[in-house]
Design a protein that fits this description.
single chain, alpha/beta, Rossmann fold, 2 domains, globular
Amino acid sequence: MIKVAIRADGSKNIGMGHVMRCLSLAKGFRNSGIDVLFLSKYEQGILKIREEGFEAIELSHDTETHYEGFCCGGAKFLGKEAEEIIEVLKDKNIDVLFIDSYNVSEEFFLKLKPFVKKLCYIDDINKFSYPVDVLINGNITGEYLNYESYYKDEIMLLGLKYNLIREEFKGLPDRKTNRAVKEIMITTGGSDPFDLSYRLSQLILSDSTFKNIKINIVAGSGFENIDRLRELKRKNTDIEIYENVSKMSEIMLKSDVAISAGGSTLYELCACGTPTLAVIVAENQRAVVDMLCTKGYIESLGWYNNFSDEEFLLKLKNLCENFEKREHYSKKMQKLVDGNGVKRIVDTIVKISS
């Protein structure tokens, strides 16, 4: 049986998206009886990994990557990290290594490659030609990024067929659209560095159009402004705050409309058929939000710092007050992702590594 290691980080600054999608993959391997361990740097991500029952080996780190995760830390920094990873690969007899980080270079991959049977990279942005055995991009943009193979026999698993959506979003019932909107969901990622949840909640509360509509706020484990939200809840009975959510699909399914940061949450909202207004909070989300919007799956507010209060309220009203539009979105959204991406990846890796 093969042994798998996954290199991914989660923290207040870079968010939890990389760790969450890698946990989805790790569970797929675990369900197939394959051992998985994680290599990770920051406390928030490590705690989540261990919570889900996986071993997490902590790598050393000097400074935390900034929130978009694009700070590459220099050749010296990556060289040191590669050496640490190699020690673990040898010590634990790892066959397959997955890397899910933007903090990579050609040299970094080439250094790691001789120590595993298969080196795999989970990507979103096509920064350069990656010297890996398997390249994975399960985004709607995956097939359009014109990837160039570094090796002739490099396997590319691209597009929504390989989306790493979690098991709970598989085979959900067709949504029945309510004529009147009763609940609005706000989900702004694992850390909400721009305090969007608070801003958007206040705007909804200030407009009489949304009187008596319940606001479901999902607060990630890295929320620094959670106390402000709790104070808002104390003053408003229409607000519900969900912390440490174990079943995100339940909140999505009961909400009539969602306002969401870009990222993998958008695929989950599509699986639930929840009509969505998306907000871009990091550069790596822009292309996905734009394409989902262009193809008519969601609506977009654009960048978090680029829309006015009036624009937001107008778009939200337009969505809430138009039953036919919401029903159309729901039906279309639920056809986007089939939920078998993890299984397809696991099956491919097992086949080529055995």
